[in-house]
Amino acid sequence: MKKAVFFDIDGTLWDNRMQIPKSTVTSIKRLRENGHYAFLCSGRSRAAIQAEELLLGIGFDGILAACGTHVEYQGKLIYERNLSEKELDELFSIFQTYRLPVVLEGKHCLYADMEDFEGNVYISNLKKSLGEGFQSLSANAGNYTVNKVTGYFKDGDYEKMKEELSVNYDLIFHSTKVFEIIPKGFSKASGIQKICEYLKIRREDTYAFGDSSNDLEMLQYAGYGISMGNGTIEAKRAADYVTADIWDDGIKKGLQQFSLI
User: Fold this and answer.
1) Confidence check: pLDDT of 177 > 90
2) What is d(CA 13, CA 9) in angstroms, rounded to the nearest whole number?
3) How far is residue 261's CA from residue 251's CA, in Å, rounded to a whole number?
4) Read out DSSP for the chain?
5) In this predicted structure, what is the pLDDT of residue 260?
6) At 193, phi and psi to the nearest 5?
7) Interval 163-175 mean pLDDT
8) Residue 259 bridge partners (DSSP)
9) In the chain, what is the straight-line distance between the N-terminal and C-terminal CA atoms, in Å?
10) Cut 0.85: pTM above it
11) What angle do CA 91, 165, 46 make, to 5 degrees?
12) 4/38 Cα distance (integer angstroms)
């Protein structure tokens, strides 16, 4: 029976220096050689993945991006949920009220104003790696095609801001300062469900590898959720199995545990 395996990127496939263990590459290739599907399943938007040749060179059957709002199989788009003009107008009103620096994330581009992110190494590296795929937010006003938003809280009424955003959006906090803003009902789990429906794969034949807060729904939804050894406490609690750390052949050992390789 053909299985489908879904892999988070950051902290799962590669580390914080974007380095991938050799055992991870060879194990995913072997997984596919054994007749199973391998998918990227990331909170990153598609635009933030398309320039990563090292990652894409491993070979995947499809990409689930932006927390389930963009789903593709073998290069074919099978589902997309973009934020409407009305939704963006309402969001920008909240952003302005709380002076919230944001990155808009879509299929083709990320949008941000660099003056809002002085000293932010992550955003600077994104701009450098994406080239034309990273555009000025203010210069492109009204011309956005985006799936989700990442906010960087600075000051103000933190609880009131969360309350207002949570009316129509799910918020995933990576810290008290950085959080993702996603249309309600969407997650990596909803992306996996779309793939299962499209390829007629049973939920019990799915496996998911993750390590952090935006992986929780995925780890709980998949037939078998596998947390990396370097994962957060929450990820380990949500998982059915905890494999080794990323640099201790965690992907390889996890796939072996379930006889996928």
Assistant:
1) no
2) 5
3) 11
4) ---EEEE-SBTTTB-TT----HHHHHHHHHHHHTT-EEEEE-SS-GGGTTT-HHHHTT--SEEEETTTTEEEETTEEEEE-PPPHHHHHHHHHHHHHTT--EEEE-SS-EE--GGGGTT-HHHHHHHHHHGGGEE-TGGGTT----SEEEEE--SS-HHHHHHHHTTTEEEEESSSSEEEEEETT-SHHHHHHHHHHHHT--GGGEEEEE-SGGGHHHHHHSSEEEE-TTS-HHHHHH-SEE---GGGTHHHHHHHHTT--
5) 98
6) -60, -40
7) 93
8) none
9) 14
10) yes
11) 65
12) 6
Rg over CA atoms, the chain: 18
Quote the tokens at residue 238.
């949500």
Q: 4-17 as b/e, with b when 16 or more CB fall inside 10 Å?
A: bbbbbbbbbbbeee
Cα separation values, 131 from 104, 114, 117, 137, 147, Å: 16, 14, 17, 14, 20
Residue entry with tokens 């469900």: 193
- Six-digit token pair at 172? 């995933």
Say how far apart CA 115 and CA 21 lie, in whole Å.
Answer: 35
